[in-house]
Amino acid sequence: MRMLKHNLGYPRMGAQRQLKKACESYWQGRIGRSELFVTAKRLQEEHWQLQQAAGMDLIPCNDFSFYDQVLDATLLFGAVPDRYAPVVTDVAENAEIDLYFAMARGYQQRGLDITAMEMTKWFDTNYHYIVPEFKKDQQFRLLSNKVFNAFDAAKHTLGVTPKPVLIGPVSYLLLGKEKETGFRRIELLKNLLPVYISALQKLQEQGAVWVQLDEPFLAMDLSEAEKEAYRHAYAEIAKRCKGLKLMLAIYFEGLQDNAALAANLPVCCLHIDLVRAPLQLDELLPLLPPKTSLSLGVVDGRNIWKNDYELSLKYIRKAVEVLGEDRVMIAPSCSLLHTPADLSLETELDDEMRSWMAFAKQKLEEVNALNEIFQGNNSPLELNRQAIAARAASDRIHKPAVKARTAGITEKDAQRESAFPHRQQLQSARFNLPLFPTTTIGSFPQTDDIRQLRAQWRKGQVTNEQYESALEQATEKTIRLQEELGLDVLVHGEFERNDMVEYFGEMLEGFAFTKNGWVQSYGSRCVKPPVIYGDVSRPADMTLRWTKFAQSCTKRPMKAMLTGPVTILQWSFVRNDQPRSLTTDQIALAIRDEAVALENAGIGIIQIDEPAIREGLPLRKADRDAYLQWAVRSFRVAASGVRDDTQVHTHMCYSEFNDIIAHIAAMDADVITIETSRSQMELLEAFADFKYPNEIGPGVYDIHSPRVPGVEEMVRLLEKAAELLPLRNLWVNPDCGLKTRKWPETRAALENMVLAARAAREKI
Ligand code: GLN
Ligand code: ZN
Hints:
Blueprint: E1 4-5, H1 18-27, H2 33-53, E2 60-61, H3 69-76, H4 85-90, H5 96-105, E3 107-109, E4 112-114, E5 119-121, E6 128-130, E7 133-134, H6 146-158, E8 163-167, H7 169-175, E9 177-178, H8 189-206, E10 210-214, H9 224-240, E11 245-249, H10 259-263, E12 269-273, H11 280-284, E13 293-299, H12 309-323, E14 328-332, H13 351-354, H14 360-374, H15 379-393, H16 400-407, H17 420-431, H18 448-458, H19 464-485, H20 502-505, E15 509-512, E16 519-522, E17 525-527, E18 531-537, H21 544-552, E19 559-563, H22 565-570, H23 580-600, E20 605-609, H24 624-639, E21 647-652, H25 661-666, E22 671-674, H26 684-690, E23 695-698, H27 711-724, H28 743-763
Parallel strand pairs: 1-14, 2-8, 7-9, 8-10, 10-11, 11-12, 12-13, 13-14, 19-20, 20-21, 21-22, 22-23
Antiparallel strand pairs: 3-4, 5-6, 15-18, 16-17
This protein binds glutamine and zinc ion.
């Protein structure tokens, strides 16, 4: 038999983001349930047909989801948290979808007010899944028919048997969270397994041949109990679902120490990610038992670059040599959920740039072409060779001066002139701030009129002069407000920025932007990451115009706002032809030059935001130190071009620092602002235990809701902070930027915050 080509999952949104629009219309009551279902059906059919046309032998179904595939599994296995019981009786008959959306988004209707389930990042992607909630005596039952209906629908549309996709039982449990003490969620396997098996049996009765079970945890660090859970789960499934062909899909990392475990599970096929972890092929091949097949994830499901056929073929040939063609399959490395839909819609990218890329639709064509070449038709190979070689040699990508400068970065470049105590003295003499100085994180409410104006300006409907003068007005008004409120260190409000990464990307060399390159982030939300395609440099000043204008409006210190190199990297599609650390260093040099230019223009305080440092942490613990080393060094390269009396701030809007505190301290920012209000300053303890030496602004109020915090509660938080850290090091600020808030609550909250700082100065 010939090698099979297959896909693990297709983007759900539709190339025009049809699903987003349909869901949001449904939530707003503008369309009914049947209209929502029609859109969903049409999208799925279109995607099935498209995959069939691209030559896929096994086409996934149930990869489609109205919100999230983990939430789908939670509903399938009936793990609905108790608090949604009233929803079930509240919503109309046959309204599984409303219960589902209630779990995803919360339910505030007819006198009920039920919170949504928690959401968190899907491994190291920017996709967020809904976290299953487990009780000690958690029971499961088959509740939803979605997967069974999807199977029938796909079979009907395709005329061939589709491959249903489910999250594997072990990964499903590990993705969840214990909501009670006294048990570990992996122990729930005994309750889940019978239900899980009955779902598989039902699919088998419907005629399913292959079923794909996603088990990405097989590529993570596993405890003994978790490994045992894998052995037990798949032994049971094999026993009870004889004849069903199971494919375990493992992606985002290599199997490493779990290779033997995975190889010996009684399944028909393992899918591995050879883009992320190519070396695992050699480790795994000798371990595979005689009947197990291997699916090679050779086409990158996480990025937008054209596949290098020559390289992929090397892996394919190696695998076929050992296993024989009938035991090898080829596929993208992971679900295509993480790539944009269709490159052919990018009519504004020039031909050369387009010739370097492939989006979801094109990636399947690549899988097909790889098979063609393998079978002896060499015609796609030559074109691909040319495209790969052209990209490798393009002078749009390679800037010798940038490469030379990056290679020449020294340890000295990554260090401020003097150590923090000396800098603190100089800065305190220069700025003469009171104890508990007040500031904000940068952005102020970005109201619809500003967004609309920007949209009109981009379309050329508004002149540069009109646009800039409106921005100046908004900036000046915000500065006056901050003066009135009595804030000590002001910001300009970031009105000229659409997004903190895109804004810089648009001004840096080496970045490209797509028109339709949307990727699902959570639910109906999509992001459109910039593409870093070449060596990064800064042809001109980026933020000086607005920062200088802002400083000219006030005598108080104006804090300039830059986005840090790691965050710019993390929130973009990055080049795959050099290490991420190198790209980050290039960005760092550009940000460093901008900081120096700001300093030369008389700006004394500069904030370099790095909210994404933590999310860049590698999935395997053993790799984390190396990542943090280069990430922190890149930040320091960006921050260390300025004089000792220039105060560098950084900001991180999350809360877990325990395991990385030493690295955070090594960033050596003069001031760090972090999110703490929701944890009641608890997470400051990590800083206290570490004896964090530099200045720190623990957020005193949560900006994620319109609620206006009282003065007293903020004073109390400051008292707590003062117990943990030296007084002279403490700042007062909100948790994060105010971009998504409205003006009235912003004004009221900051007014109270300044009062709280004043009270703290007297009291503490
Ligand atoms: N300066 C940015 C702002 O205020 C920081 C946002 C962030 O860290 N997420 O919006
Ligand atoms: Zn933030």
